[in-house]
Description:
There is one protein chain. This protein has 2 helices and 7 strands. It is an alpha+beta fold.
Amino acid sequence: xxxxxxxxxxxxxxxxxxxxxxxxxxxxxxxxxxxxxxxxxxxxxxxxxxxxxxxxxxxxxxxxxxxxxxxxxxxxxxxxxxxxxxxxxxxxxxxxxxxxxxxxxxxxxxxxxxxxxxxxxxxxxxxxxxxxxxxxxxxxxxxxxxxxxxxxxxxxxxxxxxxxxxxxxxxx
Length: 172
C-alpha cells in the first residue's frame, strides 16, 4: 500500500512538472491576434420604399378561361373541323413532320413533284394534295425552296384547328 501511495505521488508530481513548460510564444501569438484588425461589417443596405401598384386590367378577359362556349354554340362538334378518318393513309403519314426533309424537286410532264427523304433514307415523290406527317398535313404548294402544307391539330378544348407548316430544302 505504501508503494502505491508513492507511485501516485510521483505520477502527480511528474504531470505537474510537464505542464509547467514555457508558453510565452503562445501568449505572444494570442496578443498579436487580439491587436490585429478584425475587419469591418458592411452597413445595412438601404431599401427602396414600397410602391403600391394599381392593377388596371381587372376588367379584361381571364386568360385561363376558354373564350369559346361550346354549350351555347349552335353547331355541334361533329360539324367543326375534324380529321378524315376514312381517308386511306399515305406512306409519309407514319413519320413526324420534323423527321422528313426536302431534298429537291422534279418536273415531269409539266407536273412539279417534291422529293422528300424519310428517316429510313428512302426518297418519296409528293404532289400538291398529297398528305405527310402525323397531323393530317395536306400539301398546298411546292416550289424550289420549300413544301408548304396545312395540318389539322387539336385545339386543346376538344376540337381541331388548321396550322400552317413547311419543309425547307435541305432541312428537317
